[in-house]
């Protein structure tokens, strides 16, 4: 049983999908997972729903390991595994741990190798590309940004970006517009916008002194998979890299109109191209 989207994705990616009997209410990938029974979230698991499904193992996130419900699961005799996913290192470790616990060690190793190969493809295409100052926001009211100590901050760095919110020394800092203007971001990745940049575009047009606004480098991004740690972090790197350095990937764009939720670089990363 999986209590977070990343855990569900990992189980399916290593071939354990048929053994999953229940998922969290936020699990929607792969499509087969959306058809499974819902058992709450990793913060508020539904103990009655879990018990009715009789899982042999419940996998949740480490931040919930001290919850009363988690302790209750252990007391009831259920196997419980807690993993962490705040950084790329932790994401890789969680895949290894899940693979070991469900008897899919070799599949987990193969998945990690495939993920690293996808990372290498993107990193190779960015070789020699200059770093750009980046602001990545997940909300406007308040203005919440991706900060230091998150896997998204690591992805920005790997995509040859310099995260202006990292100076706040918080994982999800609240930034003032005065700070953003003074930091001069060259690229803004705004989770409140559509992936084609239409929604909320007027918000940033009020601040033409920001280089990203002046140069038209404001992009939306799909929350799935970008905000989902797990096996698809390489696709998330491709999404972020293509927005920070679109000129690098333009020559690889398909001749047909791309799906804005799945840019060319992300599609190639998932395909192993």
Helix content: 40-55%
Report the principal-axis shape. Answer: globular
Q: What number of structural domains do the residues give? A: 2
Distance between the termini: 32 Å
CATH class of the largest domain: Alpha Beta
Percentage of residues in strands = 5-15%
Low-pLDDT stretches are: 253-273
CATH architecture group name of the largest domain: 3-Layer(aba) Sandwich
* Largest sheet, strands/sense/barrel: 5 strands, mixed
SSE-based structural type: alpha/beta
Mean pLDDT across all amino acids: 87
Give the tally of β-strands.
7
Keywords:
273 residues; alpha/beta; Rossmann fold; 2 domains; five-stranded mixed beta sheet; two-stranded parallel ribbon; 7 strands; disordered C terminus
